[in-house]
Prior knowledge:
The complex is a heterodimer of chains A (about 575) and B (about 130).
Chain A: H1 2-11, H2 24-30, H3 34-63, H4 73-109, H5 117-136, H6 164-193, H7 206-237, H8 251-285, H9 292-306, H10 322-347, H11 356-378, H12 381-387, H13 391-421, H14 427-453, H15 470-499, H16 538-543, H17 553-567
Chain B: H1 2-26, H2 29-55, H3 68-71, H4 84-101, H5 105-126
Helix pairs in contact in B: 1-2, 4-5
Amino acid sequence: MTLTEEKKGESDHGQAGHHEGPSGLYRWLTSTDHKVIGKNYMYTAMVFLFIAGGMAMLIRTQLASPNGHFVSQQTYNELFTIHGSIMLYLFAGPFAFGGFANYLVPLQIGAPDMAFPRLNALSYWLYLTGGITMLLGFLTASGAAAFGWVGYAPLSSSTNSPGAGPDLWIVSIALVGFSGIFTGVNLVTTIFYLRAPGMTMFRMPIFTWNMLVTGLLILIAFPVLTAALIMLYADRHFGTVIYSVKGGGSPVLWQNLFWFFGHPEVYILALPFFGMVSEIFPVFSKKPVFGYKGLVFATLAIAGLSTGVWAHHMFTTGTVLLPFFSALSLLIAVPTGIKIFTWIGTMWGGQLNYKAPLTWAIGFIVAFTMGGITGVFLASPPIDFATHDTYFVVAHFHQVLFGSTIFAGFAGFFYWYPKLTGRMYREWLAKLQFWVVFIGFNVTFLPQYLLGLKGMPRRIAVYSPTDGFTFLNQISTVGGYLTGLGFVIFLVNMWISWKRPVPAGDNPWDGYTLEWATTSPPPSHNFTSLPPVRSTRPTWDRNHPEHADYKSPHVTEYAKKEVSSSEG
Amino acid sequence: MKVEHKIYLGLGAFFSLIVIIYWLWAGESGGATMLLASALLGLVPGSYLGWWAKRMSQRPEDVDEPTVEQSSGSIGAFPTYTIWPFVMGMGAFMVALAMVFGSWTLVIGFAFIISAAISATLESKRGGVI
């Protein structure tokens, strides 16, 4: 243990005034501590979640009756565009790779901070200003962008979507994109260069592994989006014809570029949440994670495959190679299936402790598996031709993304809430929220599969009473309100926890990984001393020396084999 | 360092395989270009990390049981607070707004970005609050 203490001691390079930074607002503006930035990201993302969730309530209200007059059709288009854009660009991604990853990755690998603390701070400010820029669209005379979160050409051209709103959308996503790229660089560098002594790659927690792969995917995908946006901006303002047929350009090029970003983006959003549940299942089953290497290689396989499947969003354009994209898309089900089996295998035979994090994580498996399996349907061109741009697709991606970002996201939030704040949330409220959201979620989205099969198109503000969509839409709207109620319960929970704090202690769950070896919340530069890292569960080894992983002959042999095979 | 090298190289090799299949089968240049760029994004850093892995001594984070000698030394300097990322972010915000409204904020934005870049560099050089 002493050797790691020495190293950490020197990293603080002994300046007396070192920990006495500014306080209050100035501290918030100037801090480069990954924990402060991570929390900023997390809370900002939650504010965006509530804004976009409120928009979802308006959308469901409009659709609750045929020929709805709740909002105008133009407003409806703006609402679903900004709802999708906020959820995907401003909530799901930044919540995970800006918030959780920023906070947890340095703690989990025993590092004092991210590799580039000032770049980290810059990426938060770009994210916040990008988000504000997007919302500014509602204040312009022509309204916010109204072409869907995918911004397809030629609808996004200056003729079809004039005004400042679409331009604000373009620059806001460019800002958020740069923020994401900087975070990706930071994550990969931190994980490669700042691990604690003994923390070999194959001893890293699964969450950190997933964040490494997310970082790699960000570096592949986001620059393509930024380039596509710059070309769109040039088309709108400088008279280029990149996405316009008139001058010899190609509107489908936008779709190719967008989805080359867009499909890896789905995994950029999902992998961090897979990582969170991979931390939660072992701790609440009192077992090491089942199939550690399987999880790691499944994550890498998902990253590789996700880059080669972009055109499965474009089957109906008639310009893509159907068998190639269909086959690769179907293949992704294999590593994803491996993950689901390893999670179930982790719980299998374990002593399950049904606290809120585990409940939410099990909810995630249910929701995500439903969404994932309908994704397998959609990867098959004949089914996709029939259901493309219907509510079937809407239901599919909401089950996948709501399933991972909300269910796994709240599992992670409740799991690490004691570490973030040093306080405990109220268990019964967290569980009540789970059941309300889980029921609301299914009541909202399961009818949408049926609506899609009946032929209800996406993105329509009104439908006719004779279409036969009314009843299912009403059920879906009730489910939507119920889900909204669930988030009110969350706010109540946070309010009570803030007003009447219950101290949580440093390690309330008997966690395995290094973040539980420090205080809650952790001190500046994270650790005063580090336990020695001799297995994938250093904190468990320290707290339970009689059952330490490195003492068990089986585990030691296994670990040696892993290292020798990985080091080649 | 070898594992890091292999991850990048593995992804690069996979994308190279995919780009060859895609190019021969679909013959479409847009997607092939993007896949080729992804392959290079794996191969170039992968080769760089491999080049270093051969030349550097083993790091304590790469061994099972690091010794005291291996683990000693400073990790690096980590600033705790600085205003310049905020200033640069606000500069970028103003430049972004200028791209939409075509206004004078462009000048202020660039002034912010340039002064923040210079100040942050000087801050690192001087030591300062870091």
